[in-house]
Amino acid sequence: MRKALIMLSAVLISATGAKAGVWETNCSGCHNGVVAPTKEKLLKTFHSKGAFLSKVKEVVSKGKMPAGLPYEKAAEELYGVSTHHVSRKSVKKSGSRAVSEADPYAKYKRFFKPLPALPPVPADNPLTPEKVKLGKMLYYDPRLSRSKIISCNTCHNLSLGGDDNVKTSLGDHWKTGGRNAPTTLNSGFLKVQFWDGRAPTLEEQAKGPIQAHVEMNATPELVIRRLKAIPEYVELFKKAFPGEKDPVTFKNIVKAIAAFERTLNTPNSPFQRYLLGETNALTKEQKEGMALFVRYGCTACHNGPVLSDGQFHKFKWNNDLGRYKVTKNPADKYKFRTPQLLNVAVTAPYFHDGSINSLEEAVKIMAEKELGKRLSDAEAKKIAAFLRSLTGKVPLEARILPQLPGNNPE
Ligand code: HEC
Ligand code: HEC
Ligand code: HEC
């Protein structure tokens, strides 16, 4: 069992490796025989590429799989292209890059990377449906807070783009922490967590808000005591962490939440579909915005699959010292981690203090402070239009409220 889990994790980790094929990068993470059927099983069930793709259409339309993934390419990889050529008129594919002669903006694609379906999964916390299910319940359960009225979803509302759309979040006793809540969507792809990067992983990150006075203001002991008093939760922890004698621990609470967060990805935005070869997924204005985004050098920091380099850059904006608070290194004063830009259009207000409401204005401020350039209104509007194409669909499964067990079982 343990060996199987280690192997599974190795597959999941390699899922985002640079040389991995489409199947490895985008499909094998779920199609591991636990969440969905393995490659071997699929090859046995579907004898031709055509049959495979029509099944894919069906499951995607039912919302069981993320839309916008390169299914066609995966089918090519699995079944070969010898008998079923793609029609000549459609997008010509060269290597991993889709190039269309009809699209003069296609040359800008190389500055971006499509988002894989799953982020890297740490070897000691493999994804299983049981753990993701438990993590989802904990994410939505306000009993993780002292007051029993604040859950992760209060500030990272999965129907509102994974944040709360207020300047700075209201926590326990209506206190605010002075920083804007970033989205939890695609957070598994971030190299470090928080505006100042003080947590390296989602597991470490989740320990913070449960205990922070300005957020949920609980203690590990309090939360464990509450959960252990609910038999249904004890049962769910046993299923999610099989073989552990006393699985209701703080470590497992944050592991389950982190596992759930790794499923909150949006590889289906118009921009992702554009990167994968759907030339008309972006409007002309959005393509012009993309070109400006590259030409002005926004990609110097906003790069990689979530448009964040994971590095710290100076943004002197108010008296928040940023990264310096973590490292105490004077060179880190006023430095903040580049935030991701996926779904940025639905996560206003902007910047670490949520002080700016308009995306166009945030874009102008960035150009001025980070690049020393003044943008015209028209340019800012185009870049903002491009950023709006980064909005994807939150997986339906994550938005369906879980049924939480009551405190007083019958
Ligand atoms: C986020 C998880 C996830 C990802 C990523 C994913 N799938 Fe799926 N896939 C599923 C689930 C769940 C099902 C549904 C299984 C069911 O209906 O019981 C499914 C079903 C399928 C089926 C139909 C299987 C059957 O027997 O009916 C095919 C074919 C398929 N996926 C191909 C792919 C390909 C190709 C990729 C990558 C490009 C991919 N999937 C990526 C979760 C995923
Ligand atoms: C009271 C509101 C509030 C609650 C409740 C809350 N958060 Fe947050 N969350 C924030 C704020 C504000 C930040 C940014 C703080 C900072 O960077 O200093 C944040 C940051 C994060 C980040 C980092 C994202 C990034 O881009 O760096 C993740 C992930 C996250 N929270 C997940 C969670 C989880 C999981 C829970 C529940 C256990 C939770 N949060 C509960 C307000 C909240
Ligand atoms: C030198 C690195 C760097 C460059 C270049 C850069 N950014 Fe940023 N960007 C950052 C950092 C760091 C932040 C976080 C600022 C803060 O502390 O609030 C940020 C924040 C943002 C935000 C707000 C995101 C949010 O969720 O609040 C937007 C939008 C944005 N950048 C767009 C752009 C655009 C458009 C350009 C090009 C005109 C650009 N950036 C150039 C580093 C950079």
Mean pLDDT: 88
Rg over CA atoms, rounded to whole Å, is: 22 Å
Distance between the termini: 35 Å
β-sheet strand percentage: under 5%
Helix- and strand-based class? mainly alpha
The first-level CATH class name of the largest domain: Mainly Alpha
Which stretches are poorly predicted, pLDDT < 50 over at least 5 residues? 1-18, 82-100
Bound molecules: heme C
Total number of domains: 3
Main β-sheet: number of strands, strand sense, barrel status?
2 strands, antiparallel
The CATH fourth-level homologous superfamily of the largest domain? Cytochrome c-like domain
How are the strands of the largest sheet arranged? Answer: 1-2
CATH architecture call of the largest domain:
Orthogonal Bundle
Number of strands: 4
> N-to-C SSE series?
HHHHHEEHHHHHHHHEHEHHH
CATH fold description of the largest domain: Cytochrome Bc1 Complex, Chain D, domain 2
Record keyword descriptors for this entry.
single chain, 410 residues, mainly alpha, Cytochrome Bc1 Complex, Chain D, domain 2, two-stranded antiparallel sheet, 17 helices, 4 strands, flat, binds heme C
